[in-house]
Amino acid sequence: MLKTILYHLAALLIVGSISMSGSVVWAGWHYQESTTFYNKQKVLSREKATIYWEGMKLRRENGDGSVDLLRLDKDAHYELEPALKTYRQSALVPVAEGSGRLPRELDDALAQLSPEERQLLEQYLPSRSATQQADLVKVVPGAEMEEISGYSCQKVQARYRNLHATLWVTYQLPISPDDQAFFRELAKRTMHREGMEDWYLWAEVLSQVGGFALKQEQLLESAAGNIKSIIAIDKMVEGPLDAALFQLPKGYSSQDE
Q1: pLDDT tens track, the chain, 257 positions
Q2: If residue 161 lies in a helix (H) or strand (E), which one and from where to where?
Q3: Domain coordinates of the chain in residue numbers?
Q4: For 123-255, where are the alpha helices, taking DSSP H only?
Q5: Are 30 and 52 in contact (CB under 8 A)?
Q6: Within its chain, how far is the Cα of 116 from the centroid?
């Protein structure tokens, strides 16, 4: 009986949100993300971001004012610059698992080469299947548990290329199967993509072990020096989100025009 009353109360609250704002709202997640970067134990910088996530859509409001929109339902990644009212769009198409296929737009670019040019280029590239196998995230769930923000978390080790990570994953948040599908689809779309290695590692780990990471430590190895980062999640709340958060704002122009 109590469960039924709470269900109807929640429904009334959502309907009230729609009528008051005039916009469509969807159930999703809203949380804060803080990242600290280190080099040889010295703090280099600190960044904060606000994330909105619903189904196959994610909005990340960065500390510098820029916004990332991941629309997996549209196979697209939008980078917004609100100060300039401009955006840049790139494709986020899935790479077929086990096929060694490259992202479609890269295949299209290679198709523009002559047979001789393509043959010469492929002499210096590993096979697609070998490249794919080498680029998969190595995930090692641990037995150690630790409490983060009041939630019991499992420590999970992962490595991808020159990126090492430890994730503290909790299974105590009500992450639904639909929510979990987001991680699987994001991993398919960020595999092999330069500049999105951290997105791929995060998504691939959670697609394999389930749950949600409340903390993540990363070590990026490079010839210029290793960079360590610590990512902490705070104020994670499930509730209605305005659908306009995941749309391109009116009046914005493409930077490619």
Answers
A1: 433 333 333 433 333 333 334 445 556 899 999 999 998 778 889 999 999 999 999 999 999 999 999 999 999 999 999 999 999 999 998 875 554 445 555 556 666 667 676 666 655 454 444 445 556 789 999 999 999 999 999 999 999 989 999 999 999 998 888 889 999 999 999 988 888 999 999 999 999 999 999 999 999 998 888 999 999 999 999 999 999 999 999 999 999 76
A2: none
A3: 2-254
A4: 128-134, 177-190, 197-209
A5: yes
A6: 38
Ranges assigned E (strand) in the chain: 25-39, 42-54, 57-62, 67-71, 76-81, 86-91, 138-148, 151-160, 163-170, 212-220, 227-242, 253-254
| CA 177, chain centre distance (Å) | 17
Report in angstroms the alpha-carbon separations of 122 from 131, 135, 166, 211: 12, 18, 35, 40
Token duo for residue 144: 């150690």
Q: How many CB atoms lie within 10 A of CB 256?
A: 9
Q: What is the pTM of this model?
A: 0.76
Structure tokens at 192: 């092999």
Q: Strand, coil or helix: what is 15?
A: helix
Structure tokens at 68: 């990332």
